[in-house]
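Troubleshooting: if your tokenizer reports a length mismatch, compare against these two reference records.
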Amino acid sequence: MSRRIVNITLDNLGDLPPKCRKCVFWELGPVSRARAEESGDPELEKESWVSSVLLEWGSCGKIAYVDGVPAGYMLFAPPQYVPRSIAFPTSPVSADAVLFMTAHLLSEFAGGGIGRMLVQAMAKDLTRRGVRAIEAFGDRRWESPACMLPVDYLLAVGFKTVRPHHHYPRLRMELRTVLTWREDVEVALERLLGSMTPSTPQGALRPVLPVLRFALRGRELIRPTEIRPVQPDQAGPDRVYQGQMYSASSRSRADFGLAPTICLTTCPPENTFMVGMAMMP
């Protein structure tokens, strides 16, 4: 059984369940919604809303397919694009958050983890776009599929209550930003490089780098001092020559705040090891 999750676009909007395709509970305010339903054209209003958000903000929903069959979907957007978001007693949505509006899963696919997959796909997408959190209004009296999300479902997929209410609490999920991820990677690299102390027989390599220090948290590289590399034609079995690799890949690593690679080559060169963003045989 194959599963895939794709962004909602105007091309696949028709894959939403017919009832959801006509629903504009979130997309319009109460007055505009009533007017759209009276005119008999809510589908056009929903299509117009999706088109506007796609153009001005980007992807605003996900559809899950199982073996090519639509199994469920979700919608989300910044609160300024969701008129209904100001109509709840626990409003407004936090300024740093995107609103998880609604989701629906076909009954034949219930219990298969599709709902959790949709939330994970939304969180991954928004994290890449620099969003700090997702918020949602839950329904404590939820009994059957509707425009609102049940509180139990939101709690099960990682949301926490930030504004309690007997009927419509507001819940929030914090997202790891790209900056936090980068800091974690840098800490891991510092620990890795700090533990890379090759054990070689005494005298096998002569020290040629009296001072070697990397700055992992910026673009600064403090170069080794007093380096006198041995020329390759003068190297013997117990001599070492040293060179720094300033390739395009090394410069790109420096641009991300990572240390360029230092290559220490022995004669014969088969014993070469590399310190930095590389392996050491």
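Reference record two:
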Amino acid sequence: MTRSKKPNGFYAGAFPYQLAGQQSRIANLDSQKARADTLAEKVIPKIALSVLAVIVAFLLFAATKPNSFRVQRSISIQAPQEKVFAFINDLHSWEAWSDESQDDRTVQKTYRGPVNGIGAMAEWHGSGRAGAANMLITESVAPSKVSVKVDWLKPFKAHNLNEFTIRAQGDQTEVTWSIQASNLYAMKVVGIFVDMQSEFGKHMESALKNLKSVAENKG
């Protein structure tokens, strides 16, 4: 009697068991996927709420910061008091030492009013970091003090008051520059991560060094 060959180790009686095993694995995968979906539905909203809470906390904390701040820097210049005063009291001379003009070559300036002293005005705008602003000398006491109001239009609207005190000290002149600056809400938010007063201070220090160089080197 000839025995019928079983096809390559496959037993017909085993098929139902294999089918049941596959169905069981599929059911387990479906169950795992359902649990993962349920977990995601619970976790993702919690994460989103936590992130939102952190953002709100940052915004509320920013709102508690003062609406203005004051920064002051000084420098000693080996030049006569009257000479240093003239570089500050004449807005045309600011191009020689002010960072706005040197850092942004796209700046265009126009001048109105007197050449120097009270009422002298400069307007500028640039496509770079200098932005756009109006600058007006509001106080001029030769040769010891100059006050300059700056109304910013770009990159944001703000109002700053610059005060320069020029004092003779022997054969040198000490210049003290203070800025009373608006602390806008956007600046308050940025100020959480960046020390805005320090940034203002760096700008002032750089400009004062330029003023020192110009005043000491020009006859």
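Descriptive notes for reference record two:
- Strands lie at 68-77, 108-112, 121-125, 132-141, 145-154, 158-169, 172-182.
- Helices lie at 15-63, 81-89, 99-103, 185-190, 196-217.
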